[in-house]
Amino acid sequence: MTIWLVRHGTTDWTQAGKLNGWTDVPLNEMGRAEAAALAADAGLPADAAIWSSDLQRATETALSLGAPREDARLRELDFGDLEGLTWAELEPETRRSLVDFDGFVAPAGESVAALGRRVEAFLSALEPGDHVVVTHGGVIRYLLRQTATDRHVAAGEAVRLVEP
């Protein structure tokens, strides 16, 4: 099985540096251009199953690739009380915890461990074959960390998930 992870395109919140978990923010003009570019030359398999988070920024990106199947388990981390804040507005301890990532728990939101459980449940239900998964930075970061290939994935970028 081959899985391609695609981070949704840019939104106004992305450009403003706001934490964006479950708030359903649409792509902006740049994000729509990124989605179109992704469809034109990302080198994704043409016959792959296309999956998407049910949040519109991911679904809009996925629609540029074909007809996605939406799954709420692919949503971004629920940032709870931190939703909509910028990095500069976060307490230093919260910033450290977000950078460390694995033990992070959003106040009145979700833990990275809970995000991991729902993402792993999604993956374990996949049939063999090629899959394109359009999702969010936190989901991609979680999965890349599981394979020791953690790195920043830009909006509108696709990366191949290497199975551990």
In DSSP terms (H or I, runs of 4 or more residues), the helix count works out at: 6
Which regions are unreliable across 5 or more consecutive residues at pLDDT < 50?
Answer: none
Helix share, percent: 25-40%
The shape, in one word, is globular
Mean of all residue-level pLDDT scores = 95
Radius of gyration: 15 Å
Read across the widest sheet, the strand sequence of neighbours is 3-2-4-1-5
Beta strand count = 5
Structural class: alpha/beta
Sequence of secondary-structure elements = EHHEHEHHEHE
Strand content: 5-15%
Q: In whole angstroms, how far apart are the ends? A: 12 Å
Largest sheet: 5 strands, mixed
Question: Describe it for me?
Answer:
The protein is α/β, with parallel strands linked by helices and 164 residues long. The chain has a 5-stranded mixed sheet. α2 (29-41) runs parallel beside α3. The chain has helices at 12-16, 29-41, 56-63, 92-100, 112-124, 137-146, and strands at 2-7, 49-52, 69-70, 130-135, 158-161.
Briefly characterize the structure.
The chain has helices spanning 12-16, 29-41, 56-63, 92-100, 112-124, 137-146, and strands spanning 2-7, 49-52, 69-70, 130-135, 158-161. It is α/β, with parallel strands linked by helices.
